[in-house]
Amino acid sequence: MYVRRSAAVLAAVTVIGTATPAVAADPTPSASPSQAFPAALYGGTDPTYDGVWRQSLALLAQDTVGVKPAAKSVDWLLGQQCANGAFAPYRADTSAACDAKTPVDTNSTAAAVQALAALGGHDAGTGKALSWLKSVQNKDGGWGYAAGGASDANSTSVVIGALAVAGEKPAEVVKGGKDGKGGQSPYDALLKLALPCDGDGAGAFAFQPDKKGALAANADATAAAVLGTLGKGMPVEAGKPATADCTDSGDRTPERAAANGAAYLTQALAKDGHLTSAMPGAEDQPDYGNTADAVVALAAQGGAEAARGPLRWLEQNSAQWAAQSGPAAYAQLILAAHATGTDPRDFGGTDLVKQLNATGPAPQSAAGGSATASAKASEQKDDDNGGVSVWWIIGVGVVAGIGVGFLISGRNKGK
Asked: Residues annotated as region Disordered (predicted)?
């Protein structure tokens, strides 16, 4: 999901309305040669806004393909956790206790849970993280990016994934009600963000309602919410073949909403085989990360064949994007390949696993690959542009102060 790359940037601009992100002249490590980032971290760019997120995706993708990550990389992720169980995007000084000013968020916390649960043996850490997530659940059953922020489809969905992979039943994690009855679950929150099957954006999910309560289709939120309503984490196996159709007949169940969302994504991808970026000034430019997320969503809901078209497009076109964007991008592509039964070591001629391993410490073991080769490649880590490609363009004060989710592409711009 998960990025899911361009996480808070456009949401911040959209929600605040007056924010103008300051664009760095050069986001590569060479722009700040005196600044050293943790050797255990994947990617070579500033981790301030996405360190835990990209680390979690990297570890999760490695585990999915049978690679045992370096112990120090797992330890680094564990060390980012606050005493209350939450994770911030990045804590440079983990010897200092978290306080009220530490910008913890639901997305970093849920992503870390998914990675640590998949790796196994970290029940204490994941248990504390889940307790914190439950403690900041909104009355409508969902979650915003920041604790107390308005629920959004992306944040709610990544938390559902964390609950599911940790062995919890998301439908039973409710807020409000009495004696366990009448409370709102995460699925209730997502269903409130689902658009009907008539009108613009039929079947899609909105990121959040606008100020007037209206819902606008958002492809990124839809890809996230399809997984959320299916109760899935980021790594998925292809579902049973199913036709993507949109219907409002009968009760709107989470499964029905997932099918409707898949129908919307199928239509959005039909013309070009990819989704389009909603970044300002990026009209008609492909959104590789959102397309990868859509592949995972479509495969989970309707089987591998349902995602075949956009998957082929990614195989043919995503290599340069991934090389520029770093570990989170490689992880997204690996998860897309995994969801469709495609070999990530021969993805359009690219070995995604080798490329991901090269952005961080050599893994302890690499199924189908060479740890020695990965170690040699990782020496070039400082020359790689790792991490989420757009996090660096927005200030942490903006990100920490608003309720935004991962995987968003501009709340007011449907695709």
From this structure: 357-384
Which of 39, 111, 63, 32 lies closest to 406 in space, CA to CA? 111
Q: Where along the chain do its domains lie?
A: 9-180+212-400
Closest CA to 98 of 78, 110, 83, 113: 83
Low-confidence ranges of the chain (pLDDT < 50): 1-34, 369-415
C-alpha 146 chain-centroid distance: 15
Q: Which listed CATH number (3.80.10, 1.50.10, 1.10.150, 2.40.160) goes with 9-180+212-400? A: 1.50.10
Residues paired with residue 324 on neighbouring β-strands, in sequence order: none
Query: Which residues, including other chains, have CB under 8 Å from residue 322's CB and lie 6 or more apart?
Result: 288, 329, 330, 333, 350, 352, 355
Query: pLDDT, tens digit, for every residue of 165-222?
Result: 999 999 999 998 776 578 999 999 999 999 999 999 999 999 999 999 999 999 999 9
Stated pTM of the model? 0.84
Phi/psi region, residue 336 (left: phi>0; alpha: psi -120 to 50; beta: rest), is alpha
Q: What is the pLDDT of residue 82?
A: 98
Q: Which residues pair with 87 in a beta bridge?
A: 81, 105
Q: Look up residue 361 and give its DSSP letter.
A: S
